[in-house]
Amino acid sequence: MAKKTCKGLTYAKYASGGDGGAITYSGGTAKTDYLCKVDINETRDSQKEHADGHQIDASNLLTAVQVALELANNDADIKKDLLGHKTGASTGELDVTEEDAPFVGVGFILCNRFKGTETYEGYWFHKVQFSSGGVSSSTKKENEQWEHETINGEAMGVVLSRGAKALFYTHYDGQSTEAAVRTWLNGKAGISSGSGGGGG
C-alpha cells in the first residue's frame, strides 16, 4: 500500500488473548491529529509459514506486516505508550530505556477524497511492537522546514478463535463517515463512548 494521509491515532496496551480467543486491552487512548502518514508493507507467501506460533498453511496468505507511522506532533505520551520511553527521575526528560517496547493494538483513520466526496476507512492492528525510526525533515516553498518522527511497528499474527487463520489487522471499509470509523476504533481499543480516550 502507498503512503497515505491519515488521522485518528488510536491505541491500547495488549493484555492477553489472540491465541485462540478474543484479545483484551487496557488503557485505550484516542488522539485526533497526531499522524501525518502511514506506510503499511505486507509480505505474502505461498509456502507454509508460522506467525506468532501459529501455522499458516493456505497459499498466498499474509505472513508479515510492518507499519510505519509518521507522527505530526512530538508527543511524550505516544513515546511512553508505544515505545516504552520513561521520564527520568533526576532530569525530568523523556529517556529511551533498554526495555522492549510494549505490545499494543493500534489503529487509525484514512480519508479518501474523490470528486469532492470524502469517505473514511479504518485499520486496527491487533498486536504490534514499535521501535523508533528516527526523524525526517521536509521543506515547503524553500522557507518552511519541519521535522517528523517515525516509529516502525512489527505486527504479530493472532488467532481470535479456535481453528481460525492468523490475522494481522482488521479493516473497516470505505463509504463510512468519520464518526462511524472513530466509534469502531474506540470499540477496538476498549474506549467507552463517554470517556473520550486520551484526548489529543
Explain how this protein is built.
The chain is mainly beta. It has one domain (4-189). The chain contains 2 helices and 12 strands. It has a 6-stranded antiparallel barrel. Strands 4-5 form a two-stranded antiparallel sheet. The protein has a two-stranded antiparallel sheet with strand order 7-8. A hairpin with a 3-residue loop joins strand 10 and strand 11 (144-155). The longest helix is centred in the C-terminal third of the chain and has 12 residues, at 178-189. It is globular and about 55 Å long. The mean pLDDT is 81.
What are the key terms here?
200 residues; two-stranded antiparallel ribbon; 6-stranded antiparallel beta barrel; mainly beta; 2 helices
List the helices and strands and how they pair.
Layout: E1 4-16, E2 24-30, E3 35-45, E4 49-51, E5 54-56, E6 61-71, H1 76-83, E7 86-87, E8 94-95, E9 103-114, E10 117-140, E11 144-155, E12 169-176, H2 178-189
Antiparallel strand pairs: 1-2, 1-3, 1-9, 3-6, 4-5, 6-11, 7-8, 9-10, 10-11, 10-12
